[in-house]
Amino acid sequence: MPRNTPLTRLAPLFALVTAATLTVAGCSLSGDDSADATQVVVGYQSKTINTVTAGTLLRARGDLEKRLDEVTEKTGKHYKVRWEDYDTGAPITTGMIAGKIDIGSMGDYPLLINGSRADANPATATSVLAVTGSSPRGSLNMVVAKPDSPITSIRDLAGKRVSASVGSAGHGTLLAGLKQAGIDATDVDITNQQPQVGSSALEAGKVDALAQFVAWPGLLVFQNKARLVYDGAQLGVPTLHGTIARNAFTKGHPEVIDAFLKAQLDATKALAADPLAASQTVAKASGLPAEVVYLYNGPGGTDFNPALKPSLIAALNGDKAYLKSIGSFPNPVDLSTFVNDGPLRTAVTETGGDYTALLNRAGGQSGSDSVSGEASGEVWYTGTETKKVSDATALLRLVQSARASGAKITAAYITDPVLGTRWFADHSIWLHDGATYQAFTTDDSARTYQRSHPGAVVVSYDQALTEVKQ
């Protein structure tokens, strides 16, 4: 049985800078191009939906450039911004350590790797400054298999080949899920691949499953190329993506860090005000289908609260064991110094916000005050019209009525009642339970519900639409 590859043998992964990285996206300039302008290099992941407020959406809206223009007006200093787009956090970490990237955004496990590698030398040290997106239960990372695969649970991965980007948030969730299921990670052939390579490998049948971060699982399921077999929310542990910067750059250019965090707040506010419009902007800039982006950016999806909550820091602390599981690291990461919310506190206060209120906000989507009262389902019609409903049965009635009237539906979303994960209605596992219907992300979640509702029976989405009574 092939074994997992130690991280020490995967060093090239962190040094990888493909030709695609050095495209127009990596060389675009904004701001002042004069010789005395301070260059600001931002590493981001255009297709990683939980970093859009510090990446794709931020760049598309021009928020950073606007905030830097304000600095120029006050101080006379000039700046130019270079955006570099990557598939994962690893090359961003490499660039930061080399002093070639100043500010970046990445998932929780990559953040820890960044801290471990960068903080080994005070000259290259970095700090986490804000959260870009989080999930209270861990639904940002998932495992998918081919639609016709016999794999229905993470328990079925023993002896199978699974594609994952080693060192990524998706890989960390895979290892944690295997441990939770009582499976030794060495009993799974984990193949280290970039997301798009792994996606192709899954489609070609070269791997049995794919473990990745958003938006890859949702994208493949939406394209009918995969089926969800493990929802990271089954771990019940918060996951997050965050903004990180080089300490030397923060010390030398505090006004830039302040401008960046204020720009992130601007993008977050815009997303909260109109999630659908923000999703369409991200879709256009990233090349992802708008339906997939809105899956994560819509009501009940990712929480874009930027505050570095104690619960998220505690989750990071619990994830530190992951570093030992994939290789030797020079620094165990001291979160008391690695996490620095001082600049964010200042940015929030100076833009009229209340950082304490953000810390105390109980979850919530897109900057909303609370998850309470949020709709369980949502139907997106043609254009920008959407309608929210309170439960799965109501969603079925809404879709049934729309079909009967000939109305075109772009997408329908429903929230798993067990895990709290927002998912595509037509790709969910549906149960008919008496006079009601319920929808779940995975077979495992549906089985959990059935244990306390023995009368619930599996039905297809189309069958449920046909049977539901108005």
From TrEMBL:
Residues 51-274 form the Solute-binding protein family 3/N-terminal domain. Pfam families: NMT1. InterPro entries: Solute-binding_3/MltF_N, SsuA/THI5. Keywords: Signal. The keyword Acyltransferase does not apply. PROSITE patterns: PROKAR_LIPOPROTEIN. Residues 1-25 form the signal peptide. Belongs to the bacterial solute-binding protein SsuA/TauA family. This is ABC transporter substrate-binding protein. It comes from Gordonia asplenii. The lineage of its organism: Bacteria, Bacillati, Actinomycetota, Actinomycetes, Mycobacteriales.
